[in-house]
Amino acid sequence: MRRRRFLRSVGATGAAGGLAGLAGCVGTFGGNPNTTLGKPSGPGADGDYPYPTWGEEMPDVRFQNPLAGEAVSLADTGRPTFVTFFFTNCMTVCPGLIGALRNVQTDAVNEGYADAVRFLPVTFDPERDDGERFRAYAEKMNVSLDAGDWRFLRPESVAAAEEKINGNFGIGFEKQPAEDGNYMYNHLALVLLVNGEGYVERAYTGPSPNPTTFVEDLAKLRK
Amino acid sequence: MTDRRTFLAGVAGAGVVGGGAWVATNGLPGATPTTTVETVDARGSTAGEQAVPVPGEVTLVDLFATWCAPCEAQMNSLVSIHEAFGDRVRFVSVTNERFGNGFTRDDLREWWVGHEGNWTLGADPESRLQEALGAGGIPYLVVADADGRITWRHGGLASEASIRRALEGALDG
Question: Which coarse location class describes where this protein primarily resides (chain B) (predicted)?
Fold first, then answer.
């Protein structure tokens, strides 16, 4: 069953290279040879989801890191990585997501494991979010751009945002006009914890993720 | 009724996740378990620990963060409400921001004074209180009566009138 669901999900998203992970996706005794964390209970454990869940290969999509002039893959990370999707003008949900990851980064700095984790927040608002915006946002959110390998990423265009982010991760972001002539977005709140081999260990949903859960799950991957 | 059912489910969930030395129930039926948070030396607040909701007192709990724009607007209301209710209701504002990495207790104090806070200021770096209260985002307000029962909760920016009504209800109850 799981295999069929996975195939369907790969087919739907058109994730290149997804098939390579299939062999390892059906483990024995309920485990998964590609993950360190066990199968989660509750949401994200079973069923069809528009985003990759436990044991699935992270779609190998690339985004720009405007502050370093590089392209960064969400799958080819080499170390445990938190990925989320946001936009800097967001007032409510996104600061909660970024704030939670910032708390993990702070724990990493305070506890001396900043070299063993990566943070890849990806904007779906490339029209407004550029390097300058990211730098100001980091300042506002008390995020260090020099610790814990934190890289703010952006798709190269609105079309790329739709294809790469909605297509692969089911964020369903949708532009909403605001009263002041500006715009906001409706979107899914998702944080993915990806292991160093590019497999999803956890998919956390909900607007108010608990950073302590992130820290505890991450600790198991660092062992 | 719906609110109460939601609340009970929330407490049951929090009991599983947040179990440990820092979470204790005061034993009253329907009372929410208290969570002990660090309190910060700041205007109206002294360094130490505080069980939240405050046992035996009507408590207004305000979950916030210094980066949260709606929380600033919420503070404007709370300052005015505190002037009216501060002698009968314990106000506790708590952030889950971790200290370090460019954010210090001095930064928190500065924000607090800049927004005219003048009551107990707490830090919950492991988000235990947020978890125990089932808060889905900030700002998030909770009112508990003197028996520790949550009588009102609100996610997002709450109107001053609704907070005043909630406090009056908890004091009358």
Answer: other
| HEC letters along A17-58 | CHHHHHHHCCCCCCCCCCCCCCCCCCCCCCCCCCCCCCCCEC
pLDDT greater than 80 at residue B21: no
User: Which domains does chain A show, CATH number per domain?
Assistant: 2-222 (3.40.30.10)
Closest Cβ–Cβ partner in A102, A109, A208 for B137: A208
Q: Is A106 on the interface with B (CB under 8 A)?
A: yes
Residues of B with CB under 8 A from a CB of A: 65, 67-70, 96-103, 107, 125-128, 130-131, 135-138, 156
ipTM given for this complex: 0.74
User: What pLDDT digit, counting tens, does each position of A149-193 carry?
Assistant: 999 999 999 999 999 999 999 999 999 998 888 899 999 999 999
Contacts 24+ apart (CB under 8 A), A175-180: none
Q: Is A40 on the interface with B (CB under 8 A)?
A: no
pTM score, two decimals? Answer: 0.80
